[in-house]
Each structure stands twice: as structure tokens, then as C-alpha cells.
Amino acid sequence: MSSLARITVFPIKALSGIDLDSCSITGAGTLSNDRSFALKDEKLRFVNGKRHPEVNQILSNFDLEQQTVTLDLYGFEDPQTFELREGNGPLEEWFSDFFGFQIRVEENSENGFPDDTKRSGPTIISTSTLEEVASWYPEISVDEVRRRFRSNLELGECPAFWEDQLNEIPDQGVRFQLGGVTFEGLKHSVRCPVPSQDTRTGEAYLDFQKVFMQKREETLPRWIEKSEFGHYYRLAINTRIVHCLAELKLSDKIKL
Question: What tens digit of pLDDT does each residue of 6-23 get?
Fold first, then answer.
């Protein structure tokens, strides 16, 4: 039976994640500390890899107990540690200096800032899927693929694309459990330009999306109706948490 092999949260939307042994669930049905903070410009638009690939140059390390973040740039050795909170002037100044325009750090500890507000639970994928995708690109490692696709939950002990069966069925989510948490699988995650970017430099990989879509179609599980799948630039499953009796823990078994 497949079990939970990795839990990753991304405290600041668009920056690096942190791996955890366990994670509590907020009242809004999101992972605690996941996308709790976001960077916004003067027009209150998100500052992320879709619009600003240079964000990949930022190295971030989080201490969730102390609620601090240490920031540096890849290739440099000038780490600076800041209190992780909304309206922290020195933290906003660091980001503003890097991007060259005014940055606001905003917080939403209950709901976070998910990409999909209707399916705001964690994204889920399998380790075997990441390994398969990495095999499509000789220059890209499994860890780099993992960083590019930024999924929250990773399943071990199952074949590639096993999680595709958690996709939505007409008018009803596919319900499953991990330990004491009940989820509904709701749609394959539609990808954006971010996975094509090197997570150290922001440089785009030539023909990344073209290669991905071709290989994804070739390896699509036989039991998936291609007519319902739509285009093939999709990976991982968006979810909604519908019930929680306990925090998520590594090695929690999945039950359909």
C-alpha cells in the first residue's frame, strides 16, 4: 500500500519549500505554513516565477519554530535572517532591493495564498512520477524536477502516475484518506511556465513544455479517457481537505 514519503510546505509563495516530518491542518483545510506569506508589488499583484523568473535566484531557509527566514542569493555568501511576519520593514526592503521595485509582504495564516482557491488543499504526486518525468530530460535531476513542480505531498511505494486515479469524476471528487485526514481529489494541476525554469537561475529549458506534453500523452495510464483529460501539460492532483482527525505524518498510508 502506498504511503506518504514527503511533506513539503512553501511558507512564502514562490520561494523554496521546507520538508517536514508532520504537518497540522488549518481550519480552512490547508497545510499549516503553506503559502502563508506572499510577495506583492505596488499594484498588489503577486510577485512569482510566472512574472519574475529571477525569483529563482533567491535562496531561502525557514525556521518555522522561530518564524524566521534566512535569505541569500545563489552564488553569493551574504545570508541575512529576518523575522517572518507581515509588514516587516527590513524584510520588505531586502526583497525591494533585489527586485528593483517596492515589495509588500502579506500574510494569510488561515487560508494561505493557493494558486487554485477552489481546490485549496495540498497538491499530491508520487515519487515514481517525478522519477519518470526526470527521465524525459537528461540534464535535469529528480530533485530538480521536484523543486520545479512544487507539490506538497509525495507518495512512495507506487508506480508512476498512480495518483492520476485521484482525479475528479463527474460532479464528485474522488475521496481518499491519509492517516486521519480525508481528502477529495479534484482535477489534475494545470501547469504554468514555472516548471520550465531552472530553480537556481530562472533560465527557461528549451522546449520543456513541448517535450512534457508529448511524453505525458505517451505515458498516460490506459484507464484515463483522453477526451476528458484535455491538454497534457498537467501533473499532480489538486485536492480539498474535507475532514481532519489528526495531523499528517510521514508513513501515513493512503486508503481509497
Answer: 999 999 999 999 999 999
Dist. CA 51–CA 54, nearest whole Å: 9
Q: What is the pLDDT of residues 100-124, one digit of tens each?
A: 999 999 999 889 998 887 788 999 9
Q: Report the distance separating Cα 207 and Cα 97, nearest Å.
A: 32
Question: Secondary structure of the chain in the HEC alphabet?
Answer: CCEEEEEEECCECCCCCEEECEECECCCCCECCCCCEEEECCCCCECCCCCCHHHHHEEEEEECCCCEEEEEECCCCCCEEEECCCCCHHHHHHHHHHHCCCCEEEECCCCCCCCCCCCCCCCEEEHHHHHHHHCCCCCCCHHHHHHHHCCCEEEECCCCCHHHHHCCECCECEEEEECCEEEEEEEEEECCCHHHECCCCCCECCCHHHHHHHHHHHCCCCCCCHHHHCCCCEEEEEEEEEEECCCEECCCEEEC
Q: How far is CA 81 from CA 62, 72, 232, in A?
A: 9, 9, 41
The CA distance from 9 to 153, in Å, is: 9
d(CA 60, CA 74): 10
- Give me the domains of the chain, ranges plus CATH numbers: 3-31+114-255 (2.40.33.20), 37-107 (no CATH)
Does the reported pTM lie above 0.90?
yes
